[in-house]
């Protein structure tokens, strides 16, 4: 049985993961609208991953005997002005999510909830990867600058994400 403090915090995290999915979907729409279809593809897959993160926590709440509460999902602020702005926001957002996961780990530790701590370890590792991926793209966009040909090349590379 989950403690109420943990249950509430996990339900909030489900909501934040769903928001992440929503945010990246809005970015997908923007990228496609400026003909950066490779970036759109990358962001769509990211959006799908975030939905999967939400479902992973939701399923855990169910299995641990907690009550799932689906909260309203905030609307992402749009539109963006450049692709660089989009990926900088992805990186900033992932850093915020990492902090949320670490706060959850701290809470689970305080509550001596070892099962939740164990479940969260996957997310701790995942966030290292998520931040590294976003940071790498931000750096590449900086290197490419305003050279449109290079930007299209980078877009094509992002489109290869499997
Ligand atoms: Fe679910 Fe990108 O953190």
Low-confidence stretches: none
Count of β-strands: 0
Kindly report the average pLDDT value.
Answer: 96
| Rg | 17 Å
The kinds of small molecule bound in this structure are: MU-OXO-diiron
Architecture in CATH? Up-down Bundle
Strand content: under 5%
The total of helices stands at 5
Q: Rough shape?
A: elongated
Distance between the termini: 38 Å
Question: How many separate domains make up the residues?
Answer: 1
What's the assembly state of these chains? single chain
Would you kindly provide a written description of the structure presented here, covering whatever features stand out?
This protein is mainly alpha-helical. The chain has a single domain, classed as Up-down Bundle (Ferritin), CATH 1.20.1260.10. Helices cover 78% and strands 0% of the residues. Helix 2 (37-63) runs parallel beside helix 5 (148-158) and helix 3 packs antiparallel against helix 4 (114-144). The protein binds MU-OXO-diiron. MU-OXO-diiron binds next to helix 1, helix 2 and helix 3. MU-OXO-diiron (FEO) binds at residues 17, 20, 50, 53, 94, 97, 130.
């Amino acid at each position: 049985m989950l403690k109420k403090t943990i249950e509430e915090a996990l339900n909030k995290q489900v909501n934040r993961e769903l928001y992440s999915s929503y945010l990246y979907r809005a970015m997908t729409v923007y990228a496609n609208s400026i003909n950066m279809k490779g970036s759109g593809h990358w962001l769509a897959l990211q959006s799908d991953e975030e939905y999967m993160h939400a479902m992973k926590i939701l399923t855990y709440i169910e299995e641990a005997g907690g009550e799932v509460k689906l909260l309203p999902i905030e609307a992402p602020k749009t539109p963006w002005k450049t692709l660089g702005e989009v990926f900088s926001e992805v990186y900033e957002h992932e850093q915020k999510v990492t902090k949320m996961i670490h706060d959850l780990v701290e809470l689970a530790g305080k509550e001596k909830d070892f099962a939740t701590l164990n479940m969260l370890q996957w997310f701790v590792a995942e966030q290292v990867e998520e931040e590294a991926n976003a940071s790498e793209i931000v750096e590449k966009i900086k290197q490419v600058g305003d050279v449109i040909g290079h930007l299209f090349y980078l877009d094509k590379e992002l489109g290869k994400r499997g």
